[in-house]
């Protein structure tokens, strides 16, 4: 029974149980991390009112999240690759828990931004090493394993998008946030203990011919990185557009309401839209990982974004109820190929698997920092309908750019 080169083949009956438990813990940790990460995007309107932010400031705040998480990912991945350690998974959970818990203690925009950056750095520390570990535990089924890991995070995102706006809309909701820190720290301890049960990451000896081929794979990785960056920009732009579109619809129906009343009424709707989008992301990731066989990734990378792009353009032309369904389709369109890209990048650069994961996730998230700001600029200067259409065009482009992907001509080596 092969678990790739990461795990030695053992005859002990406990092997599958240990692998299964470790994978379950990693997936659960992804649920927790992504649950926390949705706090600000799903409750942006409430945070605007609480901290006195302008729409432009809110867009920059939303962009800080992917920038902080994205920048920390390749740095932490390089450290993890060099030291052959998974401890940054645990540290990331701790930092994220403390950061997001402390958001409830501030009403100042500068302090809020600082604390949010701390929380998102923790999110960034966690993702590349956890994603690599999930794929390494089931390397022969790496697309499926990465897909399940991805879906666990999406379920956390759906839950967070549903819970946070309702929690924080209540009086005292923000004040109760620090109480989440203690259970997060206890969970981090559980994760640490379970990670110790799996085989340490091993170094490998590479032949000159192997290294030459692996260097050639960087061209493909660059193509995947560009496509991933576009997809994440769509994600962050939609997070902002959902807020503005919902508040625009609510304001049109209740012109006499104050900004605070509109924000409180809109927050659960925005949370629902985020939940639907994340549900679509998880659904797409699950089926993408399960249906796309290793070595057959190029076709789906091209046509899936092209197929769903028109639906994103239709979003602002429909009512709130049907918009939930379109949000699901949007999530499928830009996210179904994310786990496939992560697993493929790991396969192309097995000697830098954590770095490869970080480029497809955090490295692309750095670029996604501009998504909310571009969306705000588009809404201000072109209108919300045109901005949705431009977002759809970016989704289509993320598929077309994958035409430049060249199928590997020789097998790469498992990490």
Automatic annotation (TrEMBL):
One of its GO terms (molecular function) is transmembrane transporter activity. Keywords: Membrane, Transmembrane, Transmembrane helix. PANTHER family: FOSMIDOMYCIN RESISTANCE PROTEIN. It holds the Pfam family MFS_1. One of its GO terms (cellular component) is plasma membrane. The chain crosses the membrane at residues 21-40, 60-80, 87-107, 113-135, 147-164, 176-192, 265-288, 300-318, 324-344, 387-405. Coiled coil: none annotated. It comes from the Bacteria. This is Major Facilitator Superfamily protein.
């Amino acid at each position: 029974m092969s678990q790739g080169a990461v795990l030695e083949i053992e005859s002990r009956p406990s092997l599958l149980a240990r692998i299964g438990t470790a994978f379950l813990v990693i997936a659960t940790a992804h649920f927790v991390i992504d649950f926390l990460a949705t706090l600000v995007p799903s409750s942006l309107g409430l945070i605007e009112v609480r901290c006195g932010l302008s729409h432009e400031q809110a867009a920059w705040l939303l962009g800080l999240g992917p920038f902080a998480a994205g920048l920390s990912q390749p740095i932490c991945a390089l450290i993890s690759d060099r030291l052959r350690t998974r401890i940054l998974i645990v540290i990331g959970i701790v930092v994220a828990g403390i950061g997001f818990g402390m958001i409830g203690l501030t009403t100042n925009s500068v302090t809020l931004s600082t604390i949010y950056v701390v929380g998102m750095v923790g999110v960034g520390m966690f993702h590349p090493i956890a994603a690599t570990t999930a794929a390494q535990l089931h390397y022969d089924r790496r697309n499926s394993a990465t897909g399940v890991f991805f879906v666990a995070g999406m379920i956390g995102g759906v839950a967070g998008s549903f819970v946070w706006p309702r929690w924080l809309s209540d009086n005292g909701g923000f004040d109760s946030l620090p109480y989440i820190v203690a259970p997060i720290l206890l969970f981090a301890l559980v994760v640490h203990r379970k990670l110790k049960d799996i085989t340490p990451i091993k170094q490998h000896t590479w032949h000159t011919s192997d290294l030459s081929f692996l260097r050639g794979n960087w061209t493909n990785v660059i193509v995947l990185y560009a496509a991933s960056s576009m997809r994440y920009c769509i994600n962050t732009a939609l997070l902002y557009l959902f807020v503005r579109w919902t508040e625009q619809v609510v304001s049109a129906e209740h012109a006499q309401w104050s900004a605070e009343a509109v924000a409180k009424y809109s927050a659960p709707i925005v949370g629902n839209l985020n939940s639907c989008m994340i549900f679509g992301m998880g659904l797409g990731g699950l089926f993408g990982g399960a249906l796309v066989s290793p070595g057959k990734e190029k076709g789906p990378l091209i046509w899936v974004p092209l197929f769903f792009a028109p639906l994103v353009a239709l979003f602002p032309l429909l009512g709130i109820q049907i918009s939930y369904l379109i949000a699901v389709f949007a999530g499928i369109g830009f996210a179904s190929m994310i786990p496939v890209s992560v697993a493929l990048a790991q396969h192309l650069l097995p000697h830098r698997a954590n770095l490869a994961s970080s480029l497809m996730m955090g490295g692309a998230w750095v670029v996604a920092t501009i998504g909310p700001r571009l969306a705000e600029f588009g809404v201000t200067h072109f209108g919300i309908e045109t901005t949705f259409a431009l977002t759809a065009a970016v989704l289509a482009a993320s598929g077309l750019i994958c035409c430049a992907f060249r199928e590997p001509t020789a097998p790469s080596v498992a990490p």
